[in-house]
Each structure stands twice: as C-alpha cells, then as structure tokens.
Amino acid sequence: MTLSTTSITKRLFRSPSTWVAIILASFVLNFIVLGGLMLLLSNVMMLEDPFRSGFIVLAAVPPAVGVIPFTVFLDGDRDFSLIGTLGSYLASFIVTPLVFFIFLGSDLAFQTRLLITMFELILIPLIISRILIHTAIDARIITLKGTLVNWSFFLIVYTVVGLNREFFLSQPSTLIPTAVITFVCTFLLGYVIERAGLFLGINPKKVTSMVLLGTSKNAGFAAGLTLALFDKQSAIPSAINTIFMILYIITLDLKNTGRKNH
Fold first, then answer.
1. Fewer CB near the last or first residue (10 Å), C or N of the chain?
2. Domain 4-257 falls under CATH 1.20.1530.20
3. Based on C-alpha coordinates, what's the Rg of the chain?
C-alpha cells in the first residue's frame, strides 16, 4: 500500500475538475459491479461461513493497490487509475463499514475494531507514503519497488495459505466454488468490461484501467481484515483472489504483447 501510493504526487491534484467522472466510474466498477457480482455468486453457490464472510469482506474493500503499477506495466491510463484508486479508498471509509453493517452485523465493538483496522491498513500506509515522497526516499528505492511489491504479494499469500495449510491439504475440493467465483470475477468480468468499453468507443488505455479497477480487490487488505476480525479460514478467498489476479495480469500482459507484435 505504501509503495504503490507513492505514485500519487502533487501533479495529480492540479486538475480536480476531472475527478468526479473518474471516481464515479471507478466506484461503480469496483464496488457495485465487482462487489455485487461477488455477493451474488456467493449466494447463488450457497457458500457458508467462513467462505461467505470472506467474500463479503472482499466485496466491501477497495481495488488492489497493484492497479497503479499494473496500469503502467500494461500501458493503461495512469491518471485514471491513480484518481480512481484514490477515490475508491476514500469511499471505502463509508462503503466498507456499511457493507459490514448490512451483512455481518451492527455490534459496536465489531465496528470499532473494523475502523481501527482500516486506519492501520489504509491511513497509516498513506501517511508513510507521503513521508517517503517528502524525504525523497521514494526516488531512491524506485528500482526496488517492483521487487518489494512482489515480495509483499508473496508474504500475503504465504501467510494465509500457511495458516490454513491443513484445510488446503485435507479439503481441497471445498475450494472449487471459491475458485469458480474468483475466475468469473476476473477473467470473465474483465472480458465483458473490455468489450463494453471498446464498443462504447472509449480510449483503449482508459479501457485497460477500467478493466483493472473492475476486476481487482485489495486482497491484502481483505486478508488483514479477516485475520483480525474473523476465523483464519475466512482469509482463504483473499488468497485465492490474489493468485487468480496474478494469473489474470500475466494473461493481460501476454495479450498486450501479442497485440503490439501484431
């Protein structure tokens, strides 16, 4: 979170008049379309806890911070992704508690723990990123940023899988519905968003950003929330989501490379 948000600099704040449409589009794509699809499919497939609560948390969190570096990697619209991601994170302070209130209960102690965890996992990293920019440390570690982000993904998946290793080894078939939902919410939904964007004549770079914002959730944030608030098995959907998202980014990169060569 800290490393990815160092890309949000003062330059981005020079034209706030363009923000409204971008933030609205990002909100609809990530919270309404993607989050709504996760909730719908988890109900259709009749998932029970801990997987149900895991998908509710995923649906409630903002897009992955990886959207920003992945946009650069895939030659998307960088400003669109930056503004959309920032707006979604600000909106999450309302959306995430609201979704939790509706689907997981209104206990005051629970909501307080949620807000404290959000502060730890969103605001503190954002503050640290501002410190890195102000002290110019971000410029000195820019060549290491990709490696550090990759290791961060690894640590998230390794932690969740490690905590649930007995479950993965003894009940692998129970992961199939979770994998199916995640596949639909990345590969299939991404295809629909891409085709719709191109059909509407939207700039291809912007379409790439829309696809990323409409298919990714901050699985690290979701895993942190579930480990702090629920049973450790509730974090399994977040781990599987991370794996599928990485595979999807690889697929998009191969497709992008093939298009350029053609």
1. C
2. yes
3. 18
Asked if the model's pLDDT at residue 187 lies above 90, the reply is yes
Whole-number Å distance between alpha carbons of 262 and 257? 9
What the block records as the tokens of 235 is 């974090």
Domain coordinates in residue numbering, the chain: 4-257
What are the structure tokens assigned to 220, written together? Answer: 């690290």
Kindly provide the b/e burial profile for residues 14-38, where b requires at least 16 CB atoms within 10 angstroms of the residue's own CB. eeeeebeebbebbbebbbebbbebb
Q: For the stretch 162-190, what's the b/e string if a residue is b when 16 or more beta carbons lie within 10 angstroms of its beta carbon?
A: ebbeebeeeeeeebebbeebbeebbeebb
Cα–Cα dist 210/194, whole Å: 8
Is-contact 194 207, C-beta < 8 A?
yes
Average confidence score pLDDT of the chain: 83
Helix axes 219-229, 236-261, angle to 10 degrees: 180
The identity of residue 91, as a single letter, is A
pTM exceeds cut of 0.90: no
Residue type, 258: G
